């Protein structure tokens, strides 16, 4: 096996799909759409390079996923997120078609190990400004409790 192939193999075992996606060779769900990296991967790469801002480090959701909390989270998601992310959270809402980069498939992403509570708080609070997407920041529109409710709902989608 030559060095380049061995190197790509080694990197892909550490972060599956990252090498091929970065080379524009993957078009499967959650990786690339129309040659453009999806927002989940762009945001993840941003955090890998820069870390989370200290205001979000260690932030944890203290709410329990009971019926009332999940219902509130669903209502908040539908009111604030579904127009772009879609009712099922797959990044296919009616407003998504005109957005570049396209909204993330947050139903899938919210269940991944990298989507810690701190990461999701940062994402929802700061929106797309840190990574160049159209997602608005919600830090002045939603309380921590409301964001926590949305996060619990996302993880149950």
Task: Give a summary of the structure in a few sentences.
This protein has two domains: 35 residues, no CATH class; 90 residues, Cytochrome Bc1 Complex, Chain D, domain 2 (Orthogonal Bundle), CATH 1.10.760. The chain is 47% helix and 3% strand. It is built from eight helices and two strands, in the order ααββαααααα.
Gross geometry = globular
**What is the name of the CATH superfamily of the largest domain?**
Cytochrome c-like domain
Strand content: under 5%
Number of domains: 2
Structural class, by secondary structure, is: mainly alpha
Name of the CATH first level of the largest domain: Mainly Alpha
How are the strands of the biggest sheet laid out side by side? 1-2
Average pLDDT rating? 81
CATH topology of the largest domain: Cytochrome Bc1 Complex, Chain D, domain 2
Number of strands: 2
> What count of helical segments does DSSP give?
8
Radius of gyration: 16 Å
Contiguous uncertain segments of 5+ residues: 4-36
- Classify the helix fraction into a percent range: 40-55%
The second-level CATH architecture of the largest domain is Orthogonal Bundle
Give the biggest sheet.
2 strands, antiparallel
Distance separating the two termini: 42 Å
The secondary-structure element order is: HHEEHHHHHH
What does this protein look like?
The chain has 2 domains: 3-37, no CATH class; 67-156, Cytochrome Bc1 Complex, Chain D, domain 2 (Orthogonal Bundle). It is mainly α. The protein has a two-stranded antiparallel ribbon. The radius of gyration is 16 Å and the shape is globular. It has helices at residues 3-14, 18-22, 39-50, 67-80, 82-85, 106-109, 117-126, 144-156, and strands at residues 32-33, 36-37.
